[in-house]
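INFO  loader      accepted 1 record
INFO  loader      residues=326
INFO  predictor   begin
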Amino acid sequence: MRAATLAAVVAVCAVILPAAEAGAAPASPAGHPGLKAILAKANALSQQIDKLSEQYDGLKIQLGQARSEAAIAKENAKRYQQILGRDQGSIGAIAVENYMTGGINPALELLQTSSPQSLLDRASIMTQIQHENGAKVSLVAAAETAAQRAVAAAAQQQQRARALEAAMAAKVAVIQKKENFFNSEAFKQAEAIFQQTGKYPISASQIPGDSVGVQALKFALSKVGDPYVWAAAGPSAFDCSGLVVWAYGQIGISLMHYTGDLWNEGEHVSRSELEPGDLVFFFADLSHVGIYVGNGLMVDAPSAGQNVQVQPVFWGAYAGAVRIIA
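INFO  predictor   done
INFO  writer      dumping tokens
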């Protein structure tokens, strides 16, 4: 979460650059705003990018579901059409049989026959056949209705998929536009100050225990220094939820790549109960997640322009925590 990183940078800069606040030239190229203003803008943009990125991840999950449901609906339609094709011939035969036998008066046939019992036996058989034929007609009619519904469902899911694809493309365009700021020289100077003063080196060997959370945490720590890329889930680039998904995936636990789903994937724990490996969430919309390390620190993939890193938990935006249970 870049918000926590940038908050730390602001604090560092308040000490390093007092002259800038007194009116001296800021440590940035001429024509650019002061360093604190740059960091404030970066902070706001980072939160926006985090939110958009998680929205994109959520849309991607919905798109996968829509495509899957469309495929199932198409398969159902195909199966029902095969039932119809197979039974249409027998339905025609039933119609002919009903036509051929339906016009005969049973009383007249009884008078004409030399074997009343034979006629009664035949009538019983015909009644059974008509009953079975009626059931088959009803079955085929139901299959035809189901086929029509399946075709309509497939079309609806395809339309939903197209709408989701358009929404995702719109998110991508907005994110890319906002990320341009982090390629500016002004931001690079601000970031350089933090890189010199605000790192928290922690190795996996320093983490005690062998719980599910600790195992995943150690994998996450092995990725410190890898770049943030929105919507990425490893193995060499990550967004915030992507790092969580990848780390837990290494120990055989499959999680959804979306903070909104991760929030419901495990057991909610209080701040006082936090243990290494717990997922820590931030902001009211849960748009960012990290993995708790201990001692008020977490490892996360912050945002555009930031590598995976260990940094202080941003308690000011803390929303809650979840413990993943194997």
